[in-house]
Fold this protein.
Amino acid sequence: MTTPPVVELRGVCAGYDGRRVLDHVDLRIEQGDVVAVLGANGSGKTTLVRTMLGLTHLTCGDLELFGTPVARFRDWPRVGWVPQRTSAPGGVSATVREVVASGRLARIGRFRRGSTADRAAVSGALDVVGLSDKSGSAVGTLSGGQQQRVLIARALASQPELLVLDEPMSGVDAASQDTLVSTFERLVGDGVTILCVLHEIGLMTPLVRRAVVLTEGRVVHDGAPPTSHDIHHLDPEHAHPPAHEPEAVRGAWGLS
Amino acid sequence: MTMLQYGFMQRALIAAVLVGLSAPAVGVFLVQRRLALMGDGIGHIALTGVALGFLLGTAPVLTAVVVASIGAVVIELIRQRGRTSGDVALALLFYGGIAGGVLLIGLAPGGTNANLLSYLFGSLNSVSPGDLRVIAVLSVVLLLTLAALGRELFAASYDEEYAAVAGLPVRALNLLLAVLAALTVTVAMRVVGLLLVSALMVVPVAAAQQLVRGFRATVLTALAVGVLSAVTGVTGSYYADTVPGAMIVVVALGAFVLAAGVGAARRRTAAVR
């Protein structure tokens, strides 16, 4: 028996209020893949992620996580989600450790106290992102990059096999971006499958093995990450129809 | 202390301490979700429940629990579904609660608005042993539930979508919180009154936020402020001969002002250093 792909989408459509955002998307992610999802604003990157996480319903097609249809998937601790950072994290301040520990809850189970192993997983996640010394600080007092690392640690606390990140580099200063890249390097080394929505591939270039480019909800490129050389010879016809807007695709890669 | 010679004062003090614990314990999650005024809304709706009790000749506390719970669940369902007209729907429920209460009390045999006053403003000194038992049981149920599910409620309040993706039953947790808030309102209505219930859910939390960082620390500090305000308020009202419910809230507000001053002074010293 072969292991099923981590994520498989076959002809997936999804949208909001009758507006179709994803248009028959096919995508297969195997264990250990490091995939960047690229595309202009409004191309459907975030909707793709939300659909994979069961937050947006399918209107057509099939979506499986670890071989189970998403509607019946219950093994959520295997998936770590790093949402786009929001500026308002609730009306009561919480410490870094409290937020990261909330990522462990699904593994602990209800009405039980966390075990030593659970506490070690939380500490380990803090260590991976380099925030062990900040565990008692209020999240709201940290820099943008540090807050982003808190969200990554929260996702890592459940020791996921698939890590899904939505624009982890946005609003993060250059020094913190370097720290994040080395965090991802470490995770890739541990065999974690990564799907990362990016506005531009930038510093992630050495890590990403495969890029998926969305334009108007369709996959227009799925393969090797684009290099600047590719951009000059970009032919959208070659990747897939539709035959329009190489400009949009180029912009999507952040190299226009 | 001479005031403890009286049975009604002993009961008043115990009831106030129980409410001083449970109101901020639930309130902290409402503040976390930026729903600080939800307690107010539920308080309005509970008034209809109180009047219904008079009309049916049953204990107003029981009908208040039922009606307030239904109202809280409806508010939560509207919040989950509705996107645009949520606040208008809430406003409709609030006004409906007050109007329904005044209307029903008029229909009750011998009922006048005066019957509602002790629920609107509290009447701590008339808490009977039976009332105290109800308050004690509800408070203990509430605090035990929060102790058992506090982590889950924190996760669902901090980041609802993330909690859902992490596999937590977010909808059920939200409805549970709504029912807990309704229980708190009915427990607290005898102590501080429906119009001031929300103050005990919110003010101790706001005071705690001035002093500590972190959710757990905020909860513990808010509980301390709640109990302290309850005891000081009841004692103060005994000696100053004032209404205890209002006194408790005024003391809590004083604690907030004090905490804000201490917090600001601390931040200044930290900045200088």
